[in-house]
Amino acid sequence: MWKSILLAALLPFGTAQAAVRDLTVPMVALTGYESTRLVGQWFEVAQTPSFLEQDCHGTTAEVTARDDSRLTLKIVCHKSSLTGPILPLDGVMAETNLGLFEVRFVKLLELGNLQVVVLWQADDNSMAVIGSPGGQIGWIWSKSAHPDGAMLDKAKAALVRAGYKARAIKPVDQFE
């Protein structure tokens, strides 16, 4: 029952995602990308509006390797404030091509698979940019809760090159 209510509330929001990304701009994954570069603990330091993470604060993502070549994704979001209740989003990431993944959220199977693309990652793996062709998500993940401003600007530029509107990229509050 709760899933039906959640989906009824989220799906109309999902159809508006084209407003944050120009869908005519091709989305290109990093060439020769190695999925193990995503493994680790990340802070979501910026994002575009997302049906998955409405009003989220202090969002983190943990990516771990599995025995079957897929990755486990555990997103933790605090609703309404940094001290708000936790919304866990657990999923499995299956690489379909270099830098291209299908994400399946365990408690939201009705949503199906969400295709995501690694658009950019710092050479030292300190920051990564992930988008989706339909504009459903645009994430900037950092190994630091408060990354260097110049590096964050590079990450935002990667989203803009992929067709995301600069005004749609918003910071995510993080703990000090």
Summarize the structure in words.
The protein has one domain (about 1-170): Calycin beta-barrel core domain (Lipocalin, Beta Barrel). Strands 1-2-3-4-5-6-7-8 form an eight-stranded antiparallel beta barrel. Helices cover about 15% and strands about 40% of the residues. It contains two helices and nine strands. β2 and β3 form a beta hairpin. The model is unreliable at about 1-15 (pLDDT under 50). The chain is α+β, with helices and mostly antiparallel strands.
Topology:
Elements: H1 2-15, E1 40-47, E2 56-65, E3 71-79, E4 86-97, E5 100-105, E6 113-121, E7 127-131, E8 138-142, H2 149-161, E9 170-171
Antiparallel strand pairs: 1-2, 1-8, 1-9, 2-3, 3-4, 4-5, 5-6, 6-7, 7-8
Name the CATH architecture: Beta Barrel
Q: Could you list the spans in which at least 5 consecutive residues all have pLDDT below 50?
A: 1-15
CATH superfamily, called what? Calycin beta-barrel core domain
Predict the CATH topology.
Lipocalin
Overall, the morphology is globular
Q: What strand line-up does the widest sheet have?
A: 1-2-3-4-5-6-7-8
Helix content: 10-25%
Query: Largest sheet, described in full?
Result: 8 strands, antiparallel, barrel
The ordered H/E elements are HEEEEEEEEHE
Beta-sheet strand percentage? Answer: 35-45%
Radius of gyration, taken over Cα atoms and rounded to an integer in Å: 15 Å
CATH class: Mainly Beta
Structural class: alpha+beta
Number of domains: 1
Report how far apart the termini are. Answer: 37 Å
How many helices does DSSP assign? 2
